[in-house]
Amino acid sequence: LLHESPEAARWATYAYELWLARFPTLGGDDGGWANGNNYFAVNFETLIFFPALFRRFSGTNFYDLPWYHNVGRFMVYTWPPGSVPDGFGDGVEFRGEPDERRLWFAELIGKELGDPYALWYVQKSLNGRNHGLEVGPVLAWYKARSRDHSVAETTITPRDWPQARAFRDVGIVVMHTDLADASHNLMVSFR
Q1: Do 158 and 76 form a contact (C-beta atoms < 8 A)?
Q2: How confident is the model over 128-152, as pLDDT tens digits?
Q3: Quick one: which of 37, 103, 113, 145 has the fewest CB in 10 Å?
Q4: The model scores a pTM over 0.90
């Protein structure tokens, strides 16, 4: 409707300006999410849809923001593959390994930005499993528009990364003894 209705142009302008002014509402430049990992997942579709939509209309890459460049780190450190989440946020105590929606979001970020943290996260989490990740409507929309359906890979591993990370914008610190191997890892997280 954007070029068909004058009201649609106002709607698009409002959504664009609101998103730019408030994004990320629950994180800062360090890629964190203040409400915790469960609430973070509730926002995956919005975090994918709006930058893709605005890029389509403007030609500007809205994924090229500090938050997107760092969100892969947040995912790796606060909910490592083969592990449970950091313990912050409603319902995380009932969670096991990262779910498929989270992996699909990480893969999208990894491919969009060449983020080795996000790419390793997906690669390690899938661990040779079939990549038939189930997605919701917005994720499916994005995937349908993408020409690349291959599983992205990286050769970089957490052995090259620090074992601790502070996400100061959301007030979370996470420390690990072996980030690369959940079966040998002691994870300590605090606010």
Answers
A1: yes
A2: 665 555 566 666 666 666 656 555 6
A3: 145
A4: no
